[in-house]
Amino acid sequence: MIPTNGLIDFHCHLDLYPDHAAAVREAEAAGVFTLAVTTTPKAWLRNHELTRDTRHVRAALGLHPQLVSSRADEIALWETLLPQTRYVGEVGLDAGPRFYKSLDQQKDVFARVLRACARAGGKIITVHSVRTAKAVLDHIEEHLPQRTNRVVLHWFTGSKSEAARALDMGCYFSINATMLNNEKAAALVRSLPVGRILTETDGPFTEVDGRPSKPIDVADTVQALAKLLEFPATSLANAMRDNLRQVLQGTDLR
Ligand code: MN
Q: Is residue 3 part of a domain?
């Protein structure tokens, strides 16, 4: 097993674990760079408080597409809070059967998110794109023209040509262990350049040994990814760290 120190969980819902503070502490103690995403801007304050002084854990400001049908009006609060962070997510679109009905509303909210990021610049955005890869990329192309922001597509399940388009647009991809267990997703991951890959858990929405995954479980993800890409695990971990540096490059390193 490779050491967890220096590994990356670029998309994890630490505030959805039974003990939020303990989840932050554990990721911090393990030295896993963890991006704690939020699903509503109302969760920002607590996430921000718990991560203000951490070395490895950062909080992102989100409005999850699956919540837009009931919380679209929270986009105003989201916009107010944006100057407090350079990390944005979870945001995006979801056209799955349960959320298809709110897709137009989701598109309005996502466009506002992207336009606000474009105006501000220097934002790092973790994006959900379930059954909407093309629409998500269209939105990014239209509303986030400058390259001063970074987009990381989380749990991307689009086609290889959509992935190629995303790469041309400068997007990164965060990969979780569940994706690697799926043949089609694994084939897509294999087609990505190592220089655009980060790891994630999307905990607690993925499982390891029948329990919700935690940031330290990215050690397994790195190992599985290394096997898939035929790369030594430690070199892959170093490559991910370089990628993280690229993503964070620019303004200050918080
Ligand atoms: Mn998520």
A: no
Residue 174 lies in a domain: yes
Residues near ion ligand 1 (CB < 5 Å) are 90, 202
Please give the model's pTM, rounded to 2 decimal places: 0.96
Span from the CA of 64 to the centroid of ligand 1 (angstroms): 8
Is residue 62 one of the residues assigned to a domain?
Answer: yes
> 9 C-alpha vs ligand 1 centroid, how far in Å?
12
Tens digits of residue pLDDT in 65-103: 999 999 999 999 999 999 999 999 999 999 999 999 999
User: How buried is residue 205: exposed, middle or buried, by Cβ count under 10 Å (0-12/13-18/19+)?
Assistant: middle
User: How many angstroms does the Cα of residue 92 sit away from the middle of ligand 1?
Assistant: 10
Q: Which domain holds residue 166?
A: 8-248
Cα-trace Rg, the chain: 17
Which amino acid does the sequence have at 43?
A
157-169 tens-digit pLDDT: 999 999 999 999 9
Q: Which of 206, 195, 244 shows the shortest CA–CA distance to 12? A: 206
